[in-house]
């Protein structure tokens, strides 16, 4: 006889109910993740029981990028077009950052422990030179000074709203959401403060990258 909340020794997956946030139903759980498509949620390890080590292992053995959200592995959508846009942005920012010795950049493999046991993977990230981290840690506990996300078709509003809150909660100063279909960039200086720029506009680095300017259309060249 198996007691309520326990698993038999023959179960493929075992977990304790107090190991992850409790929800009344699956709808509440999905809402907490931002209603991401189900095909992006990994079930090995079981949702609610995953760790930072699992994120590293999946990247190493399956060549997949996953974010860790409340103990659940959520695969990050990566496409050719999004990666090309991210590369364009790195090229534009990289020369400026290096010439002015402002800090360093990371691309789409730059996994960070944004909050305790929460892993995020910005497509491009700038880190101020004052930020130090453990180079032996594959998922350092640091927050980008500027985080840039290139939106994919399967990204949901709820997912990106939650990610935006986490960036600012962790100490990020500015977030750019780059939208390929509309060739626009929304610049967030706070969760509730943003400006959207079209491809004919000029984007600047504000206080985090003083002096940097580029045409938005260059992101999508």
Please give a structural write-up.
The chain has 221 residues and is an alpha+beta fold. The chain folds into two domains: 18-75, no CATH class; 80-219, tt1808, chain A (Alpha-Beta Complex), CATH 3.90.1570.10. It contains five helices and twelve strands. It has helices spanning 26-32, 52-62, 80-99, 157-170, 216-219, and strands at residues 66-69, 72-75, 103-106, 112-115, 118-120, 124-128, 146-150, 174-179, 184-190, 193-197, 202-205, 209-215. A six-stranded mixed beta sheet has the order 3-6-7-8-9-10, sandwiched between helices. Strand 9 and strand 10 (193-197) form a beta hairpin. The relative contact order is 0.12. Residues 1-18 have low confidence and may be disordered.
Features:
221 residues, alpha+beta, tt1808, chain A, two-stranded antiparallel sheet, 26% strand, disordered N terminus
What is the CA-CA span between the terminal residues? 64 Å
Helix % is 25-40%
Text of the CATH class of the largest domain: Alpha Beta
Give the overall form.
globular
> How confident is the prediction overall: mean pLDDT?
90
Estimate the strand proportion: 25-35%
Helix tally equals 5
Q: Enumerate the strands of the largest sheet in spatial order, edge to edge or round the barrel.
A: 3-6-7-8-9-10
Radius of gyration: 19 Å
Q: What is the name of the CATH superfamily of the largest domain? A: tt1808, chain A
Total discrete domains: 2
Low-confidence segments:
1-18
Largest sheet: 6 strands, mixed
CATH second-level architecture of the largest domain: Alpha-Beta Complex
The arrangement of helices and strands along the chain is HHEEHEEEEEHEEEEEH
Number of beta-strand segments: 12
SSE-based structural type? alpha+beta
CATH topology of the largest domain: tt1808, chain A
């Amino acid at each position: 006889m198996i007691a309520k909340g326990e698993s038999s020794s023959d179960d493929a997956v075992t977990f304790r109910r107090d190991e992850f946030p409790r929800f009344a139903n699956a709808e509440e759980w999905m809402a907490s993740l931002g209603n991401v498509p189900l095909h992006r949620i990994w079930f090995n390890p079981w949702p609610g029981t995953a760790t930072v080590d699992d994120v590293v292992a999946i990247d190493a053995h399956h060549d997949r990028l996953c974010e860790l959200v409340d103990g659940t592995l959520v695969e990050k959508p990566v496409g050719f077009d999004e990666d090309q846009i991210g590369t364009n942005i790195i090229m534009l920012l990289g020369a400026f950052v290096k010439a002015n010795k402002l800090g360093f950049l990371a691309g789409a493999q730059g996994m960070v422990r944004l909050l305790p046991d929460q892993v995020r993977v910005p497509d491009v990230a700038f880190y101020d030179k004052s930020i130090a981290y453990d180079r032996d840690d594959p998922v350092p506990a640091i927050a980008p000074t500027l985080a840039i996300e290139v939106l994919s078709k399967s990204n949901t509003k709820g997912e990106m709203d939650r990610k935006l809150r986490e960036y600012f909660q962790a100490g990020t100063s500015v977030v750019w959401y780059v939208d390929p279909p509309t060739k626009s960039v929304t610049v967030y200086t706070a969760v509730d403060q943003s400006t959207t720029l079209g491809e004919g506009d000029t984007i600047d680095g504000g206080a985090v990258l003083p002096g940097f300017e580029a045409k938005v259309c260059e992101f999508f060249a």
